[in-house]
Amino acid sequence: MTAVAAKPAAGGAMNPTAMGVGFVLLIILLAICWVVAPVDSRLMMLYALIGMVVGGVLIGFGTHFVPVGGAPAAMGQAPGIATGVAMLAAGAGLAGLFGGAWAAEQGLVVAVVTGAVGGGLMMAITCMMVNFIYVFGMGIPAASGKVKVDPITGDTQPEYKSQGTEGHGLPFVSFVGGIIGGLLAGGGGTLIYLRLLDLYKATLPTMMKATESQIMPIAISAAGIFAVGMFLVNAVLTAYNITGTIEGPHDPKFKRWPRAIVASAVASALCGLVAILIVVM
Amino acid sequence: MTVKIEVVAGGIPHTKIMVAGLLASLVCLYLSYLNVYTNTEMFSFFGGLAVVAALLWGSHTVKVLCSYGIGTGVPSAGMIAFGSGVIGMLLATKFGIAAPIVALVLAAIIGLILGYLSNDVLNMKIPTMVKSLTELAIVGAFTLMGFAVLMTGSFTFANLTSGSVTLLGQVMPSYEVSFIGGSLIATAFMLGALAIQHPFNACLGPGWTQDRMLMLTAECGFLSMIVAAFMSFALVTSGAALISLIVALVGWGYTYTEYMKLGKRDAAAWLDLKPIPDVEGH
User: What ipTM describes this predicted complex?
Assistant: First the structure.
């Protein structure tokens, strides 16, 4: 058995029992947060955790839009950006997170939108440069292998597709998908960061017996590293869901998103709970 | 259907590497506690050795996991290892001397749940998924804790969040000059994440040999340790940082030459050429 013949194992089927267990886990984790939190700050911590779950779900859902091509794309044998989900998420999503972090003092909405725009912009630039290299560097046209007609522009695809490939380049719908994915993931990452930052700003001064301005470096750094960790966990779980590659929102694999939503929600709740426990314990 | 691309043929069995890596990094982390007993920071370099031990175990786990066609590329395994590891490690540092043990338990719980999510909710159906993600989370937590010890000489939350600056002869407490407050943890995160995923990514294929990959892991670990040792000059005494740096340099030099030997052993053929040959008269 060669590496080429080995196909990823995951199928498209849902596992209802596991999804149910996932929901129960999510409720349990939220309940633990409610129970362990000090009585006077219960609501604040629960809101923070729910914010992190929403952020994680946005990252998980957003990653489905991003055209991840992987190694075959690097050889021009499959459409998408020629790298893995982890690298793309780290590039685009973290660019968004940093963008949002700069705007953290402008309030929740402005910061989340800034983060989303940062992530979307990074993906737009990435997608455009990828197509530049495909078209002018490798000399291949953009063609999807999964659909006959581009759902947005209506351009036919099979005529441009080389034999023996699954398509190549970045068709318009993949490009748009990439930007939507960047928007969602960047916004989600920023939301996680902001929720944690607010929580740490409120609780660390009493815990460490210092003023708010003194603990700011720690609050920012801890919230940042937790956000990065949760971002990568969510992105990799989504990568597992789509078994590595996806063309964009028109790909049949896109229909697997409910699984990733459950997985991301539980994973974010788990990681978020641990992040909250730092200031509770 | 699950297809395994390669089989582990010969070499040290994975369980042995796992137990050895776990024990070695735990012991090294605890040996760094000599800092407290002797009231110095001279034993910080044990943190770096814990990093190397954990990475050796981790890179073999990455190999076991990625031998199944997970389709996401090898780097994703390193990323999820550290993403889940950093979360467990930071909470564990709150538990004082029990921190390494708590990190082990916490990371195992996080990894277990993430493994369940990937295997059942996301329907990966890979036999070693749960076990591998659990191991990787522990490796991530231990590696970060090792870097923390190397850079600050301690693994407790209080020491990781506060440092001191000397201003005009006055020693002033500062939260910015610290492992977490100065965001050195982010650098440690990436140093470790690259070191854990690179060896298998570089050595995979039909010519994979276990000793070569593990030697490359040790080399990557010591290389990361050199960088971390440089950063430790800011947080520990110069003498302690110098010891770390020397240990890292010696370790890296040894593993690098050994790796080159193994690389030449496994290569089909090699020619010892100058990097850019001088060509005259053209």
Answer: 0.88
